[in-house]
Here is the input.
Amino acid sequence: MFWRISRSLERYIRNILPQQIAPDRILEFGPGRSTRVFAETFPQALITSLEHQEPYYLKHKLKLQDLPQVTLYHCPLDHNSNSFYSTGLWSHSSYDLILVDGPPKNTKPKVRGGASCIFNNLTPGGLIILDDSNRPDEKSIIQQWIPDFDLTEIFNGSSFTVLQKSPSVSTARTRAQAEAEAEPAYMLGAA
Ligand SMILES: C[S@@+](CC[C@H](N)C(=O)[O-])C[C@H]1O[C@@H](n2cnc3c(N)ncnc32)[C@H](O)[C@@H]1O
Here is the structure.
């Protein structure tokens, strides 16, 4: 239970996030409850989830097998570099939404800062959720990320923070855009 996303983050994902973004692609560091919550909230999205520990990878592979939109990778940490997840197929895609809920804090100080390796692949206007952001390490990571990657803090929960990449050259689809695109032509007054 302790390892799962909090109830408040789950409520945020289910109730607030759909008003902010309609992601096509979601990346998640640390699978589990959050994977299922994303799949239920954004059934159209493809979800890529990384697990570094093989026993948890096998456990989640089984538990999430009913969700075809989820691609789960066993992705060991790269201890020759910053002890973040080793790069691979996952690091060649672009994403609209990223949840950073791993690696665990006892891996290495400020280990979750390594998530910035994928920020160039975050679509403009895309969102990053950093879980456990009430911890000193995570607070310091946020202070570094905001200026370095032109991010804006759009929500500060009791134990998680939501950051947005500058939407200036926006290609990320907002909820309003997605709904407009889904609108039948006759509704828009076309013949
Ligand atoms: C915070 S957990 C990810 C939780 C996930 N996002 C969820 O909502 O269920 C991050 C990592 O901790 C490790 N982990 C998960 N459960 C664990 C446990 N019971 N004991 C030790 N490590 C665990 C796994 O490697 C996992 O990827």
About this structure: The chain has a mean pLDDT of 92. The chain has one domain: 7-188. Strands lie at 25-29, 46-51, 70-74, 95-100, 122-131, 151-156, 160-165. Residues 13 and 38 are 7 Å apart (CA to CA).
